[in-house]
## 1
Amino acid sequence: MKMDDILKYGIKKILVVNLGGIGDLLLSTPALRVLKENYPESEISILVVPRLYEIARDLRYIDQVFIFYKEGYYSLPRFLKNLLCLFRLRRMGFDICLNMRTLVSKKSAKKIKFIFYIIHPRIKAGRDTDGRGWFFDIKIPESLKDNKWEAEYDIKMMEALGIKVSDRGFDFPLDSDSIDNLRRILLRNGVSEKETLVGIHPGGKPSHRWQVQNFIKVIDEISKVRNCRFIITGDNQDLDLTKWFRRVDTVNLIGKLSLKELGALIKRCDLFISNDTGPMHIAAILKTPLIAIFGPGYLSRYDPRHISNKAVVFYKNTICSPCDKLRCKTMHCLRDIYPEGVIAKALDFL
């Protein structure tokens, strides 16, 4: 059967590979939704990193979720788990496999090529980032120097499959259990339902972190003129930040919320102030007033203002940005963002 015939008549099992972060998955939801609408009888599975399992399993257009361990990928236990998962996927006999992430380096391209080789779908589709996706049957042109919004690449993927994307709304799966759990957590921490809440997310990738002292100054100055409660959020990788907030009146929920409980909190907040990281995208999708502190990330790709008209971005274009560094000694792009501007905009929202 020819590839065109397979796309028209032979798509029964679809696998989406998205090994990015929270924002990467959420920005792909319009494409995933329309994929299911166009292949309603097909089974759509997705391969994600562990922390995204909770969200992916509750997307109504995803039938099965599988986990791939990127962290510790080369350790023997993780490697064996990944290999077992990939061979299980191979036995499922997918008609098409879609890679919905940028191939940022030759190393990442080799990893995806290996994954696709093991899974062995009939059709391989993905982003051909600067020529690194040569092994795909269906290639979506991409360059790291492009200024396109990230979601546009997933939409281009759908168009390459002959699918028109008219509904570009984004999904975050909130449920009543998560909302109730969040309400109880806040009550246990002395936060009533009537209080004004400001969420503060100071964590994320080390090179994307605005200086903690700046967040503390923002809290101090807002507290002088507004009666509100400050909720500090983050995952277990941000626990090192906890000690910095002990001197200010905050509720520390770092490492204490599931992703969906975090979503419920962000929905409850009157304002959310965040570095460029996953919760920033959650706030934009849930239309919570948002102040995003953007450092070395790719603003044109991940600008939350594409999603929400309630988002404000603070960004300084420096000679060394954007970049993909995990850590940075100078942090010029973030040091040039001063708390006074953030404070003024926060007071406008409040």
Note: The mean pLDDT is 92.
## 2
Amino acid sequence: MEERRPSLFSYFVVSLLGAVIGAFLMVTFFPAATQGKEENKIENRIIIEKTTDFSYAANKVLPSVVSISSKGQVASGFIIDQDGFIATNSHVLDKNMIITLTDGREFTGNVVFQDRVLDLAIIKIEADNLKEVTLGDSNLINIGDSVLAIGNPLNLRYHRTVTAGIISGKDITIEIEKGKFMEDLIQTDAAINKGNSGGPLINLRGEVIGINSVKASEYEGIGFAIPINIIKPILKSLREKGEFKPPTLGLKIFDVETARYYNYNIDRGIYVYEVVEDGPGFKAGIKEGDVILSIDGVEVNKVVDLKRELYLKEIGSKVILKIKNPIGMVREVEVLLDSIDNLSVDVFR
């Protein structure tokens, strides 16, 4: 008699039954194998939702935003240290200014740092139970990143509002007056007006990446913010010494972008277009037309980067600048830093 072989249908039925039994045993006796994958999916979903949630970022920072009443106007600031240091714009300062916290407490403020060209200032209040912001890294931002601008609209001291937008440009330099520039700014389409000038520009993690400046935001639909990294060495000195005295090179300088606008052909570094007589740079032999390539071995291509490195130095200390002259010769010069108070704070670095 001929032996009958199992049909293909029989194999299919047996395989299907085996798969069902195997899945049942896996879920019943080894639930962690599937649970871990499901938890990972949920965790990833939570992280994604959190980083795209405007309310998460706004509510994290809002308690640290203050209103500053001066000159009959209301502007903004934000607490950068729980000991009472507040960042804001230089142009909002007034000897009779009143700082109002979100809990309604009011204080007078003392100016501990001011840069009129950069439109940056730090004031100090004597208060406790303060919530400081988290400072981000403005070097890590990208065009297209979502951002929020927070501040006080319509001269309302006790209200904070949030406007949303994206980073539409970075390392932007604009001329605010003839011969005076604000360099390396963050450009955003988030609305910046007199009310939120001095307030924080934040990413969706609730980290401050810039200080809003209405001084540079007089163009329709365009706002600018000062990169937050410039404030870090200033805050470090205030925390450690209780004061900050900015050193200077005594130079008037451009970054690459601005230099090209004025037809100075450089591809990197910081262009020197004026040297103050008897200043540190003058005494070190730096000339108009020289290009600063590095300071103490740190390459610099943006004014804000050079300024940040300077702010880490002490008045009376020496720095080594690598300089390229107009004919391409590179040399190193030693510069003895002086106090910026001995020069024009509005013009020279």
Note: The chain has two domains: 33-243, 245-342.
## 3
Amino acid sequence: MADSWIFWLEEIGQEHSELAGKKCANLGEMAKMGMLVPSGFSLSPKAQERFIRESNAEQEIEQFLAKFEGGVHSLQAYEEASQGLRQIVETKEIPQDMQETIISYYDSLCSRRGAGTEVSVAVRSAGTKSHPGQYETYLNVRGKDKLLNKVTKVWASMFNTRTIASLDRQGVAVEDSPFLGVCVLEMVNARCAGVGFTGDPMSGDLTKIIIEGSWGLGESVVSGTLTPDRYIIDKHTSKIIERVISDKRMRVVAKDEGTVEEEVPAEKRLVPCLSDEEVVRIAELAQTLESHFGVPQDMEWAISADLPFPDNIFLLQTRPAKIIAKAPSNPQETKQTFSS
């Protein structure tokens, strides 16, 4: 396995974080736990390393960066470097044998849904360290050529402005930016989606589970562009102890290609996006993840519009949560951040 660069999610687990990236390794681990996760496959960081080397991008990157005398150390330099480096990567072709392998995995994914079906997938970064929101994500990608194009674009996002600025703050040269894995996941036809925390990120209360969600895909919840419905569940009793239903005016939905933001019909805006039994089940899954991984979790979920409860609850990601923990026996707050 160590010499491979592409894997089905069910082939990997949390022990393969360095090989396949944390996102894919955790998805594989959840699948092994019997949880519902979308079908998909992982391209390891080794895939990008080979692509950069064999496409001649490595030499062009070195030549391009040589003109930044003294390094890339200002906002203007970040932006100029990002534009040039991403163009270099995005204009390169993936080696032919790698293209054929990626396409064969996509074809196998499609065949699971029936002959003639082109599965819609999400194409996300999957690094060996967690960097939420730092790299590009492409949703509702359909077709072989478009999949290859989005894989290349995710790889190119290793040189986005945010990443270059972060590298500079760490004293790391741009050319030493870590290679990215890529996670290719079948899209869930989401009625609603959101996040869950096995602890209150704001108060540090680890006796509560926080679930937030909204209509459509979860991107608007994850990005914080709207106020979602919010549920608080007591860990010990599994009862909902508080719910706040928001005026959910907009939602992100999949169209023929990609996604669009659209208005939520007026009659649905103040309707809870989750039933109580769905809230409780998501909380149970979150608590199981916390027990399994040993630290509070920050997870993402989606409710399929095509399946009945409880088979409609899919887990899209889990990672250690960043929570300020409060010691229950001590009135003084103890700050502890759970993160990888």
Note: The chain has a mean pLDDT of 92.
